[in-house]
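Sample intake sheet
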Amino acid sequence: MVSDELWDRLEPLLPQRERRFRYPGRKPLPDRDVLCGILYVLHTGIQWEYLPKQLGFGSGMTCWRRLRDSNEAGVWQRLHEVLLAELNAAAKLDRSRCVVDSSHVRAFKRGIHTGPSPVDRGPAGSKHHLITDGRGTPLAVLVTGGNRNDVTQLLPLLDAIPPVRGRVGRPRRKPDSLFADRGYDHDLYRHQVRERGIVPAIARRGTRHGTGLGTYRWVIERTFAWLHGFRRLRIRWERRADIHEAFLKLACCLITHRQLGSLC
């Protein structure tokens, strides 16, 4: 079920659909009921066509279309920004540092943004590239093919961080420092991060483990565990990359909302 607190934040962001005056057709299902169906698929990983109609969420295709339309309208991105602003207003968003990492998932149906896995004998997969604040709150997420090098998405992730409101003054976008593992070890990218006014703290290849960066980086591993707690994200079943990205953004919204609820 969708909580009243989440629905109050989401409802004003949903696109309004006008019905035709003549031959209006069947009245559409309420958005809140359809959202429950989308969340049911996200949590359980069930295929769209097997979504039980007796639950009152509508057909799987109806939920699929609403997810697609909401993503195209930027609903999930705007909801995420609203939630981040509320966390920032409550002083629960750590912008002093951010953490980046990626996670590989199988993609049995292939599609856009898939590629051979470099660590699993080459089956098709995708990578979830994630950047969080110092407390593990998702700031931005991207999807690429499974064969893309992590470091190539470092700057796109930084550029994808939205300007976070919630406090007096200009909305802040850049963190003070960035933490990453050895997969992001490249002096060119360190230089480009510094040019953005961010201090890079990136582990170097060949150095011993236990250098202390894990003290700050563990939060992103926990966030990936939260993301993949949604069964639909453990394996990519969508051929269309935008539908998979919509699920990812919606999951980030739910994680951020949980952290906001923990303040009460």
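Comment: The chain is about 40% helix and 15% strand. Helices lie at 4-10, 31-44, 60-72, 75-89, 154-160, 187-195, 214-227, 241-261.
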